[in-house]
Amino acid sequence: MPSNRLSRAVTLINKLPHALHTPALSLLFGSQVKFAGTAKVRVHQLTPNRADLSLANRRSVQNHINGVHAAAMALLAESATGFLVGMNVPDDKLPLIKSLKVDYLKRATGALHAAAILTPEQIEAIRTQEKGEVLVAVSITDEAGIEPIRCEMLWAWVSKKR
After folding, report:
1. What is the pTM of this model?
2. Which residues of the chain have pLDDT under 70?
3. What is the pLDDT of residues 13-32, one digit of tens each?
4. Residues 28 and 46 sit within 8 Å (Cβ to Cβ)
5. Which listed residue, of 57, 81, 83, 101, carries a Cα 20 to 30 Å from 37's Cα?
């Protein structure tokens, strides 16, 4: 299985006691993606085919009606899908968000959870193709189990050498 710096770091973190996984993964992510770190996006699970992240409904990410702001919801979806693509893209490639589509369906209640997945075929394409793109499935739910937004996140990867 090919690996990159991110996947190797996650493998090392997963060797720590379980109670340290979320804090360590979240610190790693926040140090690399500053906006996600500022919003305090939490990383609960990260494997080559799945990413589980959350965002608390805190004052700093709230809108005028005390819910999670629309931009913060999109940040959570983009973070989950991007971190997942980042787990699979070779070190000589650069992952880039190509487009994101977010439909706001209902008012969110409380904290949000994101679950992003890649199929084995998508992982193989990311790891072996010189450049390409992949539509990453992501589900966002709130504390009531409601899906407040529906997203489509299209990621691309290109060579770092230009």
Report:
1. 0.91
2. 1-2, 162
3. 989 999 999 999 999 888 88
4. no
5. 101
